[in-house]
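Figure-free illustration: sequence to structure, shown twice.
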Amino acid sequence: MKFMKRFVSYKYFKKYNYVKVNFLDYLTYIVYEIYKIIKDCTYWSYMCIRYPFLYPRNRNTGLHYTNPELEAYLKQYEKIHTNQHYLDDVQDLAYFQKMYSNINYDKSTNIITFWDNKMSYFWHWFVKNIWYKKILQIVFGIPNTSIWEYWEGDCEGWKKSFGNDLLQELKTQLKKDNLLYKFRIIQIKEKFGVFNLYFENGSPEIRNIINKYTTISGNICKTCGKKAEVRSIGWISPYCKKCIGDKKYVEISK
């Protein structure tokens, strides 16, 4: 029970990164970070299976956004402890064979590739192995977030109020239109005090659904999700009187 209290209390452990800590503190932080990763991946995998259009993809290529990260990861580890040398004299090959137990010699280019030790050689082979790449493609394809998290602006109240209803209506209509796996969300943002969602490959019915929630959002507090009572001046946003804070506002006419 005492450990669980520490586990929760170190939720904000990152801010102590530059303070001397003991091993248990560090271990607690690592365990919590692993817990967060598993929790996020489990939740967003479920959401992206339930609503395929939430799976974060490149708007131009349609590829999952981590594909470039995967390629960079592979290139990085292919270079670990790997050395290359151009042989001016083929007779020098005997020297390298004596010094290093794992050598690849390319006769066409006269270049030898060698590794610092057997473990490095094994790791290089492991990274190059096609099954390893397949495993990584699966791992990197597991979403730890979704397009739903990339709203421009603090709009948690709208998510809480009508987010699930909006997603369900979109899915139902997309299935009718046979566009469930072609529909792409380009951007979600607050604009002029209301909810806006930009998309590709959608029908007029989809636009009608989004317009309906755009109208609804103007009367919902974007912070807590309760009925909006006021609208801020300057950066126009709907709030309840509790969430407006010290911002200047005008009353929303009933």
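We now fold a second protein in the same way, so the two outputs can be compared directly.
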Amino acid sequence: MKIKVKNIFTKSEMAKFNNDDNKFHILFDVSTDFEYQEQQKIYNSEISMRIIFLNQQPEKNKDNNLFNYDDVFLDCEFSGYFDVICENDDTKIDIDKIMRTNCCAMLYPFIRERIARITQESLYKKPYYLESINFISVYNDWIKRMQG
């Protein structure tokens, strides 16, 4: 199996820096989509990562929303397009796992750099660096939550 990066870009960005104490909470969401091209044995894949910085701890409100949009001060969504190329007998690969681990790990450095730049150019005047993520551990935790 080979993974080819086709394109990585920022889908949306919203920033309103009104958080004076530099304390915030981060929500992280990943969505995936793919299409298998049987003749070429290629998965055309898209990953979207959304990162939301909140002024306070998220909790569900009366409308069952996880947070109040007034508490959001940075909301960015990034997309990456990848070709996952199957070789030999790779046709039985777990494409969702590959996208949520390997492809996310390839996209994440671009996200970290963009978040650092946005925060440095903001009222904070210093970059905020997202921590490194072990996407395999995150994926395994996500599978456990999905299984109940």
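Summary for the second example: The beta strands are 2-15, 25-37, 42-54, 72-85.
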